[in-house]
Structures are given as C-alpha cells and as structure tokens.
Amino acid sequence: MSIRIDPFTRTPGLAGKAYIDTGIADTIIANFKSNDSGKHVYKITGLRGSGKSVEYGKVMQSLKEEKDWLVYNLSAAGNTVSTFLSLLSGEDFLRAHERTIEKSFRASIGGSMIGASGEGSIKITNTQDDNTFPKTDEALIIRLIEKANKQNYKILVGIDDISKTADTVKLLSIIGSMIVVGAELYLIVTGLSENIEEFSSEKNLTFFKRADSIEASVLNKYDIVARYQTLLGIDAAEARKIEKATNDYAYAYQVLGSLYFDKKGNQTLEDLIPTFENIMFKDSYDMIWKTLTEGEKEMVRCICRSKNGQIDDIKAQMKNPSSYNVFRNKLINKHLVNGSKRGYLQIDLPRFQNFVELWGDD
C-alpha cells in the first residue's frame, strides 16, 4: 500500500510543494544579483506565521546555488560575529596562507660559523601562520571579505527572526562599514517590526534603519484556491470554502490544508475547525498575544467586542479613549490590526476573536 505524503507543512521556513510565490524573494534576489541595483540590505517584516521565513529561505537557498556567492545563515541567539568569522575563514580559498617574516641584524662573528666568518649581516627567516598574529575579529572579517571580493565572490549574510543583542549590533555595524566603502556584501533579515525597530536607536546603524523593508502580508486568495484544488484534488467551490476559513493567513493556509489532506472520508470542513482552531491558538496566537503590552491587549479586546470594528464603539469601551491613536498605531505597526477601512479597525487572523474571548483575560 502506497503512503500518501502530505504536501503541507507546519515547519517554520519551509513551504514545500504548497509554496505560494508572493514575489518577495524574487524581488530581493533580482536586486542582489543586478549590477544596476544599489540595494544591499532587505528586511522582511510581518506577523508571526505570515511567511517571512519562507521567503527568507528561498533567497538564501537560491543564492547559495550560485557559484559566485558565499551565503551564511546566522542565528540571532548565537555569537554572530565569531560565527561569521569562523565560516568565512573556513573557506578553502580564504584560508590564511603562511608568510615569511624576515629579521635582519648585525652580529660580530669571530672565527667561522657554519660557513660564515668575520663580521657580517645574518638574515634569520621565521615562517609563521597569519592566524598567530593578534587581530580583532572585525579586522579579520574585513580582510577576508576583501579577499573574497577580489576573487569575484559576493557575500550574503542572513539572520532569520533577528533581535537586538550586543553581538548583532556589532555585526550589523561591521557590515554597514563594509557596504559604505563598496564591498560586495549583502544582508537579509526577518523579524517582527518591533524587534527590528529596536536597532533604530543605534547611531552607527543608519544604513540598517533606511534599508528597504518588505511586509509579508496575506497570500493571494486565487492562488490559495488553485493550490488547494491541485494538492487536495477537490473542485473550486470546495477549495474556496477552505480558503475563506484561512482568511489568507499563510500559516492557516498550511495548517488547514494539512488537516483537510488527512481527513477521514466522511469528515467535512466544519469537522476540522475545532482542531484547526486549537493548533492556531497554541502555535501562533499565544505567541502573538505574549508580545502585546497590557494597553495593546485592552484595545484588542475592545476591537473584538465592538460592532464590526467601528472606531466609535471601540473608543466607548476603552478605559482611556484618549490613548486610542497611540495603541492603534502600535497595533497596525505590529501587523495585527488592519486600519485600511476608514472608520474601522479589523483583526483579519482567522478565529482570533475566539482566542481573545477564551484566553484574552489570562
């Protein structure tokens, strides 16, 4: 009996056969590879589960397959500077070569000494490896990048889900100093908007603050329906029903697609919703909720309890209505709230209101 392989995945950064092209990765790749582009840095932002890591992974994998690119994926939680240095210095063609250190001095030699006599100059040759000489990590990284560029290699550094640490600040500072002098060095990061904005307070990271930022937002509803039809072997009407239940949220698309793929013969879409809701609550919404301040949580609760998200109704429920604009802007910046419709605020995540009603007071 052949085993059916689920084409959907819940693993961060992977999309597999179910991947829906948003154009984000292709835009970044095209600019990094083009000699006419001056873009060396991209930031992919968006809500958790919006597909940031998938686009990041496509960029990293595509350029890693290019023969003239050196691609390094670094962990924001690790020692990014020392790890970058170790990876660079591990490249065979960048290994430190032995060099000869020549020291000359005058010496008085009486009689003969291994073929030498009288008074003369003795040259002593000492061979040492470059790495025995004390250098800073920054100096070594700069030297290795310059050597790689001279041999026509471009270098891409990537950090998925970046957060501000002393080490990431130092690494970004080194990268910025190299880019400004024309190095073929490129950077791509993903992260929540609030985490990326923390770097703005660093005076020497202006290049990072001004770099292009692309939001991973909802997937195209027509693409979702088409993929469901193909991967699940269903008609357009049924695919449309599943798509509606996801609200086009990338993680929901994968989760519900996987549940439908594994459903029993007599199960309906409605039968899958409780399990779908449970997974979304555990894997996505709980993490989103924990990133909100108490003031932001209060406003989210007011939005969920309001009549269709009408602003007047939201303000009427707030303890301090004068803080409305402050929290509105913060929640929009975090990509949780949609304020595109005049006079309304909406939360587009599927079944998020149910999460807030059940867990919003914890």
Q: Fraction of residues in helices?
A: 40-55%
Q: For the residues shown, what is the average pLDDT?
A: 90
Structural class by secondary-structure content: alpha/beta
CATH fold-level topology of the largest domain: Rossmann fold
The proportion of residues in beta strands is 15-25%
Instruction: Using the CA coordinates, give the radius of gyration.
Output: 28 Å
Euclidean distance between termini CA atoms: 47 Å
Shape descriptor reads globular
Number of domains: 3
Major beta sheet, specifics?
Answer: 5 strands, parallel
The unreliable regions are: 97-130
Could you state the order of secondary-structure elements as H and E?
Answer: HEHEHEEHEHEHHEHHHHHHHH
Account of the protein in words:
InterPro entries: P-loop_NTPase. By secondary structure, the chain is of the alpha/beta class. It folds into three domains: 21-84 and 150-215, P-loop containing nucleotide triphosphate hydrolases (Rossmann fold); 221-288, no CATH class; 291-359, Arc Repressor Mutant, subunit A, CATH 1.10.10. It has helices spanning 24-33, 52-64, 80-89, 137-150, 166-179, 193-197, 206-210, 221-232, 236-246, 250-261, 269-290, 294-305, 311-317, 324-333, 352-359, and strands at 41-45, 69-75, 98-113, 116-129, 154-160, 185-191, 212-215. Strands 2-5-6-1-7 form a five-stranded parallel β-sheet, with helices on both faces. A two-stranded antiparallel ribbon has the order 3-4. α10 (250-261) packs antiparallel against α11 (269-290). The radius of gyration is 28 Å and the shape is globular.
